Amino acid sequence: MRTLYYFVMMFISTGIHSQSYTKLLEDDKVWNVSYSNYANIPPTGYTTEYSFHKDTIINGITYQDFGALLREDTVNRRVFYWYHNEEYLLYDFNANVGDTILTTHFQIVIDSISTITLENSEKRKIFYHSGSNTGEYYIEGIGSDHGLVEISEANGPPAINFNCLTKNGEKIFGSCTNSSIQTNEKHPNTLLVSPNPVNEILHLTDIAGLNSGKVQILDQQGQILLEEKITTTLYLNNVSSGEYLLRLFDKGNEIVGQSRFIKE
After folding, report:
1. What is the CA angle 28-30-32, rounded to 5?
2. CA-CA distance, 227 to 204, in Å (whole number)?
3. Spatial separation of the C-alpha atoms in residues 141 and 93, rounded to whole Å
4. What is the pTM of this model?
């Protein structure tokens, strides 16, 4: 009887442990992130929202389009990011103290792991980390202190602030009213561009049906460097080396696609 009792308790314990992971990527979640440059007079900035749009298949692998192409391995508790035509590990919620993780182009080291209690009394694991040009922590089921995919964004300018996360319209983390943003806009579908990095000529794909509208290229401070009518080919001879944001607008001036790219 004692052996049976031990087996049952071990089974229950294992079941609880296996169910303790909270997914990051869920269709009803929305991340609100602001980008602000206080060095400009007057200050400039914008707010963007990451929300689920559709599933996208790349090289036979299914990614969820939240305005960034992501996939989640719930068995190994990791989240991957399709960025600049490569897949990177974005979050490792199975990491241990001392682990070194390469996220996009930055390395972070897990310094400590703790537990926090959310406003709804749910408990989540929080991973504190250090590294060059990174934030300070990321939280299971929430994201980083900078936002959803901004775990490794360089520290300012612009300043990046993760305002809040909502699930099914209900706030579960942060303060949605404490935002310094001048404009609120939902993060559009991820736009596929190639090559990336690019030298002189950038090609846009999946824009069939958009016969009118415009294309913009913005720098990291949110300044518009280039704007022209919709086209599948952009010539970047006069654009300096660096990282940029490309946005595609329909004829109603609504953002329908965007992508980050690197100009060599």
Report:
1. 170
2. 15
3. 9
4. 0.64
pLDDT, one tens digit per residue, over 205-253 is 666 556 678 888 888 767 788 888 887 788 888 888 887 888 888 777 7
One-letter identity of residue 174: G
Domains within the chain, CATH numbers bracketed: 22-184 (no CATH), 193-263 (2.60.40.1220)
User: What is the rounded distance in angstroms from the CA atom of residue 235 to the CA atom of residue 226?
Assistant: 10
User: At 63, is the secondary structure helix, strand, or coil?
Assistant: strand
- Tell me how far apart the alpha carbons of residues 159 and 145 are, in angstroms, rounded to a whole number: 12
Q: Which two tokens stand for residue 17?
A: 């442990």
> Which residues lie closer than 8 Å to 87 by C-beta, 6 or more apart?
61, 80, 81
Give the position of tokens 């060095």. Answer: 39
100 phi, psi to nearest 5 deg: -105, 130
N-terminal to C-terminal alpha carbon distance within the chain: 70
**Cis omega (within 30 of 0) for bond into 188:** no
Rounded Cα gap, residues 52 and 138, in angstroms: 20
Q: Which of 263, 207, 258, 210 is nearest to 237 (CA)?
A: 263
Which pair of structure tokens corresponds to residue 89? Answer: 């590990």
| Rounded CA separation 26/142 (Å) | 11
Q: What is the pLDDT of residues 45-104, one digit of tens each?
A: 677 888 898 899 999 999 999 988 999 999 999 999 988 788 999 999 999 999 988 876
Location of structure tokens 């846009």: 204
